[in-house]
Design a protein that fits this description.
Radius of gyration: 22 Å
Structural class: alpha/beta
Number of strands: 13
Strand order of the largest sheet: 2-8-7-6-5-3-4
Bound molecules: pyridoxal-5'-phosphate
Number of helices: 15
Strand content: 5-15%
Largest sheet: 7 strands, mixed
Order of helices and strands: HEHHHEHEHHEHEHEHEEHHHEEHEEEH
Length: about 425
């Protein structure tokens, strides 16, 4: 560990040496708090890039000027608008361009992907997922099982932490995959668990799933733009993510999805189709038979929601400038510094703060989840009054995520100072 210090001067020094420090000015920091904000909820909704307004305004101007002709003549023509994202997003998730597309919303994409990759037959009908997955994923999985006239009680196998532990062991996921063998149809878990911030070993889980003949997919809501991903190299079958957390593209912003190259042109894989997945050459001849684009784009149903996608484009252009490698490097330092400060606070406070996120940097991203023993929501309210925007989960868990694009080491110091006073 570096010789960290829990002091304002030291945090300021870290900021001075931060090669990404100028990126903070590219974002609006919320102004609703009485005291200066410490915004640590980029894991829930990322901040607005200042450039978003002009990106959206450009589309509004083109719409005003061109009407329907904007599909062809807008400065970024709307018909192929979604193609502006392919390379940028492929870079962020470690995929080939033919494996990704950006459209719809996250839960919609997970459904569309599971229609294709959860194909239960008599014996092979089970799904492995993490216990207490994000509720939308639980509902999506249950409804997929119902869709095949099966019972979730028979088909969904949840892996939870062992007695007395907070994290789910990768080895337990893999052991369950090996145990279910030819009964296992699909593994579908969060690449980063939303509650604990734990990063799963996606490579090992994918390999284990494939060994028993199952498909493996990940919900990357808390992973995309947060941790390095190598979906193609790991051989993951499918994945989807949202753009409004670490990807800073606005509330309800478009989702992205990935389908491994070996599946994208496999005509035996069923899918729910729409006209935007149909071959571009004759889409507007309006043929009555669906002919899929030979890339992941063929899972697109509808034409691009350009206005909200403009915000995503503004944000991805910032990502491109910062670069995932530099972002990850700063993210590790920010979160390590946060961990150090919490440990310092613990020294004088009977170790009342228990970080349940893994200590190993390879098993976590920006987020730390902290159990505040003996505390209740009054603690969270004190933090809020003093300008901290964080996330509280009953009965006593605080989730915080310093985000490398717009958070500073001084934010981390100030959070520590406020937390210590509030305890
Ligand atoms: C892990 C996870 N999965 C799914 C969702 C649902 O996303 P959406 O409402 O965009 O479909 C969320 C939303 O926060 C999430 O955190």
């Amino acid at each position: 560990m570096t010789n960290w210090e829990f002091s304002s001067d030291y945090a300021k020094k870290l900021d001075q040496n931060d090669e990404l420090k100028s990126f903070r000015d590219l974002f609006y920091l919320p102004t609703f708090t009485k005291n200066d904000v410490v915004y640590f909820t980029g894991n829930s909704l990322g901040l607005q890039p200042k450039s978003v307004q002009s990106y959206i305004q450009k589309e509004l101007d083109d719409w005003a000027k061109w009407g329907v002709e904007g599909h062809l003549y807008a400065s970024n023509p709307w018909m192929p608008y979604h193609e502006l994202f392919t390379e940028k997003i492929a870079c962020i998730v470690g995929a080939k361009t033919k494996e990704v597309a950006v459209t719809h919303s996250l839960t919609t994409n997970l459904h569309l992907l599971m229609v294709s990759f959860y194909r239960p037959d008599n014996k092979r009908n089970k799904i492995i997922c993490e216990k207490k997955a994000f509720p939308s994923d639980q509902y999506a999985l249950q409804s997929q099982v119902h869709f095949h006239n099966l019972d979730p009680k028979d088909c969904i196998v949840e892996i939870g932490p062992r007695e007395g532990e907070h994290l789910i062991r990768n080895e337990d996921v893999i052991a369950k995959i090996e145990e279910l063998k030819d009964e296992l149809s699909m593994v579908m878990i969060g690449g980063v668990n939303y509650f604990t911030g734990q990063v799963f070993d996606m490579k090992a889980i994918t390999e284990a799933g494939h060994k028993v003949g199952a498909k493996v997919g990940f919900d990357l809501a808390h992973a995309a733009g947060n941790i390095p991903l190598k979906l193609n190299e790991w051989g993951v079958d499918f994945a989807a993510w949202c753009s409004y957390k670490y990807l800073n593209s606005g509330p309800g912003g478009v989702s992205g999805y990935y389908i491994n190259e070996k599946h994208v042109t496999n005509s035996k894989i069923p899918r729910f189709a729409g006209w935007w997945g149909h071959n571009k050459e004759d889409r507007f001849k309006m043929p009555d038979k669906f002919s899929p684009i030979p890339t992941a784009e063929s899972w697109q149903l509808s034409n691009a929601p350009v206005i909200s996608m403009a915000a995503h484009l503004a944000s991805l252009n910032i990502f491109e400038k910062a670069g995932m490698e530099r972002l990850r490097k700063k993210s590790i330092s920010l979160t390590n510094y946060l961990e150090f400060i919490i440990e310092q606070i613990n020294i004088n406070n009977n170790n009342c703060l228990e970080i349940i996120t893994p200590k190993d940097i390879n098993q976590r991203g920006s987020q730390l989840s902290i159990v505040a023993h003996g505390a209740n929501k009054a603690l969270f309210e004190k933090l809020s009054i003093n300008g901290v925007v964080a996330d509280w989960r009953e009965p006593n868990v605080i989730r915080i995520a310093p985000v490398p694009l717009y958070n500073s080491f001084e934010d981390v110091y100030r959070f520590g100072e406020i937390l210590e006073k509030s305890l």
